[in-house]
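One thing: mind reviewing this one?
=====
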Amino acid sequence: MLKCIVTGLGGQGLHWVEQVKQREDCEIVGYIEPNEANQQRAVEKKNVPKERIFPSLDAALQNTQADFVLDVTPPAVHHQIAEKAFAAGLHVLGEKPLSDDFATAKAVVEAGQKAGVKHMITQNYRFGGQPRSTRKALDEGLIGKPGQCDIRFYMNWADFAGSHYVTQPYMLINDMMVHHFDMLRYVLNNDPVSVQAITWNQPWGWHAGDAAHAIVFEYSDGLVATHVSVGCAVGSQTSWNGDWRIEGPNGSVDWDKSGTWYSHLHRTEEKVDRRAIPQVEVRPAHQAILDEFFSAIKEDRQPECNAQDNLKSLAMVFAAIQSTKEGRKVQLSELG
């Protein structure tokens, strides 16, 4: 039985509380929430014991015995939570992004490595059926070596007046696209070496920062991935995964809201037009993340989405933002 401290009882924090309570192999021994309104809501709506809510992680560490911290605080304080947990010898399961600052993210990764604990980031999108099934199909050589991947994302994203998603710059890339960039790394099993991005706003949009973009990632083996997005789309929408097409010498893999498909229509005796790709059975994403994290602790190995690996997904985010700010192609190696 692993014992957990949950930091943050906002909306996402309460969702994680529900996920943990579904399990028989974990017990929540403490909750961190300085905001009284959030405390009251957690007590009334989620039956969180009032006596187990602490105003700070320091107070919880002094009054409980735990194995790990589940960090659901804002990105700007993720490093503070992680460093205190590491100092106490606790593992950390942290909400994405790893940090809102790349240098800070690198320092936190190094701190976790020195502490010898498990540090995993909750990149839940990669645990879904489409990325899992597509990765399997590519690993099995269905279309040969991928040469191009094109992603389209059209969504009325973050339509919350006054939130940081709406008021701060580059939030579509900074917050949402870390999901897609992490899926890119997982599905293609490859990391880009450079990025060129342009961003803009639509006149009817509700974001202060740019909420539309065209991004091109290049890879050392010649693979090219494109990502085009409109975060203030008011017409037809993609799924949250986006619409994907991966092209190889033996055909393509496409996915959209209706399914995941294989096609091979050029110079083949048996032409294939949108044949459904068998879907890998997956657990609900948050439970799959907990499964992986707990297994990594018990087996004393690095979990998938460990912080060191996730730093590569975060690098794609910050390099894309740097590219659009400076109007040039950015090598990911520039981030150090």
The first strand starts at residue 2 and ends at 7. The chain has two domains: 2-117, 125-281+315-335.
